[in-house]
Automatic annotation (TrEMBL):
Similarity-based family: Belongs to the RLP family.
Residues spanning the signal sequence: none
Pfam family, one: LRR_1
Transmembrane segments: 285-302
Protein name as it appears in the record: Leucine-rich repeat-containing N-terminal plant-type domain-containing protein
Localisation: Cell membrane
Length: 331
C-alpha cells in the first residue's frame, strides 16, 4: 500500500532495488541527490499509478531501455533524469505510452497531488534556475533530461505531449532540427534546448505556443531569422546567444532579404589595424633596404680609402676625440 517513497538528498549507494516493482500503488519515487549507480529502471514502467519519477543527480548510466511493457509509464506526469550519465537516443518507444502527458483531467485542475495522504515537493529547473514546488498541482507536467550525454534528434512524438508545461533537454549532444510538432504543445510554459548541437531554423510554428514564458535556445548551431510575434516579442538576447548565424530582433545582427545574417561592414578599428600593418611593412622594407645600402657604402669606403673627404672627416673626428680625452685626464 506504499504510495510515496521519498529518499531525496541522502548518501545512498548501489542499485535501485527491483523489489519496488511489487509496490503496485506507488505514485512517487524520489531518490534524487544520492550516489545510486544503476541503469535506467525500466521495470518501474509497470507501476500503474506512478506519477513522479525523480532520479536527478545520481550515477545512473547507459541508454534508456527499450521497454517490453506494452504501455509503460502510463500515469507518469513528472520525470527528472537530469545530472546523470545516461547515453544514447531519447526513448521513442517509451514516450508513446505516457498517456498522462497528453491530456489533463479538466475537473481536477486545481487539486494537489497526494490529496490528504501526502504533500510532495520537488525541484524544477527553468531557465537555469531551481524552483522548489512545495505542492504539486495534479495538472502539472514536467520532463527534465538535461545534463546527460543523449545524442541524436529530438523525437517528433514529443509534440503529442499537449499537457506538458516544462521541457528541459539542455546540456546534451542532441542534433538535427527543432521539431515542428512542438506547435502542438499548447500548454508548454518553459522550453530549454540550450547547449546542444541543434541546427536549422527556429520553426515559425512555435508562435502558436502562446503559453511559452521561458525560452532558451542558446549555444546551438541555429541559423536564419528569429520568429517575431506573440510571446516571441518578449524573449531577450540571452535566449539566442551562442548561435552566430541567427539574425533579427532582439539581436543586433540584421537579416538580409534571404533571411540570413548580413555580412558585417569593415569596422574602422579593422581598417586602422590593416593600415597600421601596411605602414609597418613599408617601414621594415625601408629599414632593410637602407641597411643593405649603408653596409655596401661602408665596405667600399674602408676597403678603397675613397672618397677621401669622407676618410678625412672620420679621421679628423677621431683626432678631436683623442685630444678631448687627454685634456680631461690632465685636469
Amino acid at each position: 500500500n506504499l504510495r510515496s517513497l521519498d529518499l531525496n538528498n541522502n548518501k545512498l549507494e548501489g542499485p535501485l532495488p527491483i523489489s519496488l516493482a511489487k509496490c503496485m500503488k506507488l505514485e512517487v519515487v524520489n531518490v534524487g541527490n544520492n550516489m545510486i549507480s544503476d541503469s535506467f529502471p525500466c521495470w518501474l514502467g509497470s507501476l500503474p499509478e506512478l506519477k513522479i519519477l525523480e532520479l536527478r543527480s545520481n550515477r545512473f548510466y547507459g541508454p534508456l531501455c527499450k521497454s517490453n511493457i506494452t504501455f509503460p509509464f502510463q500515469a507518469l506526469q513528472i520525470i527528472d533524469l537530469s545530472h546523470n550519465e545516461f547515453t544514447g537516443f531519447l526513448p521513442t518507444r517509451i514516450f508513446p505510452g505516457m498517456e498522462a502527458m497528453k491530456n489533463v483531467d479538466e475537473q481536477r485542475r486545481l487539486e494537489y497531488m497526494g490529496g490528504a495522504f501526502y504533500n510532495e515537493s520537488i525541484t524544477v529547473v527553468m531557465k537555469g534556475h531551481d524552483f522548489q514546488l512545495q505542492k504539486i498541482l495534479v495538472m502539472f507536467r514536467a520532463m527534465d533530461f538535461s545534463s546527460n550525454r543523449f545524442h541524436g534528434e529530438i523525437p517528433e512524438v514529443l509534440g503529442n505531449f499537449k499537457s506538458l508545461k516544462v521541457l528541459n533537454l539542455s546540456h546534451n549532444s542532441l542534433t538535427g532540427n527543432i521539431p515542428v510538432s512542438f506547435e502542438n504543445m499548447t500548454a508548454l510554459e518553459s522550453l530549454d534546448l540550450s547547449f546542444n548541437k541543434l541546427d536549422g531554423r527556429i520553426p515559425e510554428q512555435l508562435l502558436s505556443v502562446t503559453a511559452l514564458a521561458l525560452l532558451n535556445l542558446s549555444y546551438n548551431r541555429l541559423w536564419g531569422r528569429i520568429p517575431r510575434g506573440n510571446q516571441f516579442n518578449t524573449f531577450e538576447n540571452d535566449s539566442y546567444i551562442g548561435n552566430i548565424h541567427l539574425c533579427g530582433e532582439p539581436l543586433t545582427v540584421r537579416c538580409s532579404n534571404d533571411g540570413l545574417p548580413e555580412a558585417p561592414p569593415l569596422a574602422s578599428s579593422d581598417h586602422d589595424e590593416t593600415a597600421s600593418r601596411f605602414d609597418w611593412k613599408m617601414a621594415k622594407m625601408g629599414y632593410a633596404s637602407g641597411l643593405v645600402i649603408g653596409l655596401s657604402i661602408g665596405y667600399m669606403v674602408f676597403s678603397t680609402g675613397k672618397p677621401q673627404w669622407f676618410v678625412r672627416m672620420v679621421e679628423g673626428d677621431q683626432q678631436k676625440n683623442v685630444r678631448r680625452a687627454r685634456r680631461r685626464q690632465m685636469r
